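User: My advisor, Dr. K., asked me to get a structural model of this assembly before our group meeting. I'm new to this, so sorry if the format is off. These are the inputs:
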Amino acid sequence: MGLETAIPTDSVLTTQLNRIINWARRSSLWPMPFATACCGIELMSTASSRYDLARFGAEVMRFSPRQSDLLIVAGRVAVKMLPVLQRIYMQMCEPKWVISMGACASTGGVFDTYAVVQGVDQFIPVDVYVPGCPPRPEMLLEGIMAVQRIIDEENIPYDGEGHRLPLEIALQPNYEPRPQPAEVSIGAT
Ligand code: SF4
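Assistant: The format is fine. Below is the predicted structure of the whole assembly, which you can bring to the meeting.
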C-alpha cells in the first residue's frame, strides 16, 4: 500500500521544476527553535505525539542554524540576547523563513521594559506572527502551514539588492476563549 497504488509506476508526470522544488521545500522544513521562555514549552509540545508536527514534515528540529530554514522565535528576547538571535538568523541557509511565536516575541508582551526587545521584527524580518500568550500548539501549526503556503506560491519577495523582505502575515486566533469553570473572586470571605 503506497503511492504506487494510486499512481501506476509506469505513468509519466510532467510538471515544472520550480513546483517540484517548492513541494520538496515545503514538505521538509527544518525548524531552528529559539525558545527563550514559556512559549518554548508550547513549541515543544507541538512536536509531541498529540500534535505531531511530523505530519507537516517539520519535526526535524535542528540546533545548528546552518541546517535550518525556519526560525521559530518563541518567547521574549532580552536585549542581551539580540545579537545571538541576529547571528543565528544570518547563519541560516537561504531561502529561510521566520515565525514570531507569541505576544512577547512579536511585541514584547507584558514586558514593557528597557531590557526586553519590543518586537523581534525591528531587527530580523518576520514572515508570520502567531498570536497568543502562549499560542496553543494548533496555532503554531497554523503558522507553519502559512509558511508552507508561502513556499507553494513562491511568494518570496526580495529588494533590489538581493535582501529578503519580510512577508508580515498576522494570523487570526483559531480558538474561542472559554469562560472560567468556576467564578473567581479575589478577597472573598
Ligand atoms: S507570550 Fe506569554 S507564554 Fe509566550 S513567552 Fe510571553 S509571557 Fe510567556
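One thing worth pointing out at the meeting: The first strand starts at residue 31 and ends at 35.

User: Perfect, thanks a lot.
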